[in-house]
Amino acid sequence: MKRKVEKYDFKALGQAIKDARNSKEMSRNQLADKMNIAPRYIASIENSGQHPSLQIFYELVTILDVSVDQFFFPDKEANKSSQRRQLDSLLDEMDGKDLVIITATAKGIKEAKSDERTEN
């Protein structure tokens, strides 16, 4: 007897992969070269929701810092979203002076939000 299995729709994950690739300013060809696969395969995953092999899936999410928790466990809050992982990756590439600027910017945003709440 064949069991009925609902196939996972990879379209949202494919879009997240595309967004992460673009945020890293990486072309499909560059990513494909890095992974030693065809750019068409990446395009199919990103645009058509093609199911990647487990190995390709793993490489994509680790290279692009994509959190899969939000896709597989949507009811649970992820430890780190894809956006947070990508920001962490960018911060890792910065030197001390850059981090001083980023810290001051983050504090400024926090203060502006606090002032906004106080006014309302």
UniProtKB/TrEMBL annotation:
Record-linked PROSITE patterns: HTH_CROC1 (PS50943)
GO terms, molecular function: DNA binding
Alphabetized InterPro entries for the sequence: Cro/C1-type_HTH, DBD_HTH, Lambda_DNA-bd_dom_sf
Residue span(s) of domain HTH cro/C1-type: 17-71
Domain of life of the organism encoding this protein: Bacteria
Pfam family, one: HTH_3
Keyword field: DNA-binding
Keyword DNA-binding recorded: yes
Protein name: Helix-turn-helix protein
The species this protein was found in: Alkalibaculum bacchi
